[in-house]
Specification:
Glycosyltransferase RgtA/B/C/D-like domain-containing protein; mainly alpha; globular
């Protein structure tokens, strides 16, 4: 039966047995889990994507207030505004993502058998499925990052191919449309290509093409927001996000912004007393109506919050640095996991999944901690050997992500790490494979 399926016309696009098995297992796994799960997860963030998607379906972005970028709503657009079809798309994207994980592992010299089992291990984490069942950008971002790193690990720095540069530029451009925060990634990749064989003439080599689509995406969408709101920003949440970093020293802002700090401090103390998420304090201030008397629309208010945030940070750099390191950056290494999603429909199943997730969470945290410990090792190795490696590129991009997200905002920072968690696990496995000698049996497992 299985052989008939594997050799059927369903898999006309590949002859690889392991890829066929990954697709079959991935589809069956998602169907099985979905039988016990509820409808899709809708978070407060989700409505912004749905709202933009509805405007895109009307082919009218006039007066759009700029909260979200169009990358993820495009998925909703191609699903004709159906939330159910959007989730089905995401499940399909999840299956395809696992194929790129497999091919990436082969690029990194894991053998066929071990690559297959490592992918099943990566895919088994419950929160991967839960993200796929949610109207959030993370599943699409994970897919795009997985394709990008598949290309990078396929000797990207050594090869020169115009088609590959254009493809990578397009993928990175779409990634920026999905999450404008990722605009730094193409610049890091371009920097690596310059370091590979450093010459001043290489600044204008064809590798620079990878910057084209990301810049068009970022600047183009910012211009759309400029037309609609008057502010040249990738998202009108920008100012509000900056102000979130001031939550623990909100009262130290300039006197001219006391109308902000008074409300900010009041709701911060309420959040602490009620044991709510302190990072969301500025949102509670906004929702409370404390700023309504100013008669600002959201874009104008966010701009004022951004001015307040920048001025407060400039006057209190020590508090800001402490906030970034001990909270925003530290939270990046945590896990945005099962606890924040809907429970499974059947209590008994949910209880089992909670126990499974507890074990998985400990395993994942161990890998993330190990990766964090290994970062200095790979940086030192580069300084010593002057050799660019796939592990170094992953380390630099993940570390840059952890720092930049901490500098930009405070709140659900662990979501920023989700698209990179599989890479952290792979780097740790690579380290064990190459540098740690166990028994012959254990080393063979990681061949």
């Amino acid at each position: 039966m299985l052989d008939k399926i594997l050799h059927s016309k369903l898999f006309w696009f590949t002859k690889n047995r392991e890829i066929k098995l990954l697709i079959i297992i991935g589809v069956l796994y998602r169907i099985f889990i979905m039988c016990f799960y509820q409808d899709g997860n809708i978070f407060p963030d989700s409505w912004g994507f749905i709202s933009l998607g509805d405007q895109m379906l009307d082919f009218d972005l006039k007066w759009y207030t700029g909260e979200r970028s169009p990358g993820y709503p495009l998925l909703y657009f191609f699903a004709f505004g159906s939330l159910t079809l959007t989730l089905l798309f995401q499940f399909g994207i999840g299956v395809i993502t696992s194929v790129f994980w497999y091919k990436t592992l082969l690029n990194l010299n894991f053998n066929i058998k071990n690559s297959f089992w490592i992918v099943l291990f990566l895919e088994s984490f419950i929160h991967v499925f839960l993200y796929e069942s949610s109207f959030l950008v993370e599943t699409l971002a994970l897919f795009l990052i997985s394709v990008v790193f598949y290309i990078l690990t396929n000797a990207y720095l050594e090869k020169r191919s115009l088609k590959k540069e254009v493809l990578l530029s397009f993928l990175l451009g779409y990634l920026v449309l999905v999450k404008p925060f990722f605009i730094y990634i193409p610049f890091i990749i371009y920097g690596f290509s310059l370091l590979k064989n450093f010459k001043f003439s290489n600044f204008l080599s064809q590798k620079i093409i990878i910057l084209v689509f990301p810049l068009i995406a970022y600047l183009g969408w910012s211009y759309v927001n400029k037309i609609n709101t008057g502010y040249f920003v990738s998202t009108t949440y920008y100012g509000l996000n900056i102000s979130q970093n001031c939550v623990y020293f909100a009262e130290k802002g300039p006197k001219e912004y006391q109308w902000i700090s008074d409300s900010y401090v009041k709701h911060r103390e309420i959040s602490i007393k009620q044991k709510e998420d302190v990072a969301m304090t500025i949102w509670r201030s906004y929702a409370s109506g404390d700023f309504d008397y100013k008669c600002y629309n959201f874009a104008d208010l966010s701009n004022e919050l951004g001015k307040y945030g920048k001025a407060t940070i400039a006057e209190n750099p020590k508090d800001y640095f402490e906030q970034v390191v001990t909270k925003s950056w530290f939270d990046f290494w945590k896990i945005f996991g099962k606890e924040v999603f809907k429970p499974f429909r059947v209590d008994f199943v949910d209880s089992i999944m909670n126990k499974v997730w507890f074990v998985q969470k400990m395993i994942l945290l161990s890998f993330k901690l190990s990766f964090l410990i290994l970062m200095p090792f790979y940086l030192f190795k580069f300084l010593r050997d002057r050799k660019l490696t796939n592990e170094l590129m992953i380390v630099v991009i993940v570390f840059a992500t952890s720092v930049l997200q901490g500098l930009v905002t405070y709140g659900t920072n662990s979501k920023y790490s989700f698209p990179f968690e599989y890479l952290m696990i792979i780097v740790v496995l690579l380290f064990v494979k190459r540098y740690i000698r166990f028994s012959k049996f254990l080393n063979k497992i990681l061949e």
